[in-house]
Design a protein that fits this description.
By secondary structure, this protein is α+β, with helices and mostly antiparallel strands. It has one domain (about 35-130): Lipocalin (Beta Barrel). It is about 20% helix and about 45% strand. It is built from two helices and eight strands, in the order αβββββββαβ. It has helices at about 1-20, 120-125; strands at about 35-45, 50-55, 60-65, 75-85, 85-90, 100-105, 110-115, 130. It has an eight-stranded antiparallel barrel with strand order 1-2-3-4-5-6-7-8. It is globular, with a radius of gyration of 23 Å. It starts with a helix and ends with a strand. The model is unreliable at about 5-25 (pLDDT under 50).
């Protein structure tokens, strides 16, 4: 029995070591598929409601497009970096700061939540649950 015990313990140890240190494990947070067009009905601080399209382009830029005419609001364009589930907005003519947003996509809905944001108008424009636009 002793002659089988040592090899058995050795094999068991190897399985435990390699099983727990799986270098092929993709344990990172998955980057959601955000590219394409999303829409939402937004309400501003004055109670005005308007439809908006959030078009995420393959070149890592986005267009925030008013689908209704609303006084005091205009279309916007910005550039971003996407890492895992965080969008970092790096170039935005309407805001002089970098903004970071957590992103989740589930059941054709994109949720954006500010992680760090100093630009209030941009947060008001982006922090929504967007619905995937269907054609």
């Amino acid at each position: 029995m002793k002659s089988y015990l040592f090899p058995l313990i050795t094999i068991f140890s190897i399985v435990i070591i390699f099983g727990s240190c799986n270098k092929d494990c993709n344990c990172d947070i998955e980057t959601p598929d955000i590219y394409g067009s999303w829409t939402v009905l937004q309400t501003d601080q004055d109670g005005l409601q308007y439809n908006v399209e959030f078009k995420v382009n393959a070149n890592n830029s986005y267009d925030w497009i008013l689908l209704d005419t609303v006084e005091g609001h205009s279309n916007s364009h910005a550039e971003f970096i996407l890492s895992e589930n965080i969008m970092t907005i790096t170039v935005d003519a309407d805001c002089n700061s970098i903004g970071e947003y957590y992103l989740t996509v589930e059941a054709n809905k994109l949720t954006m939540i500010a992680k760090t944001e100093e630009c209030g108008p941009r947060a008001a424009a982006l922090e929504w649950v967007w619905k995937k636009k269907t054609y």
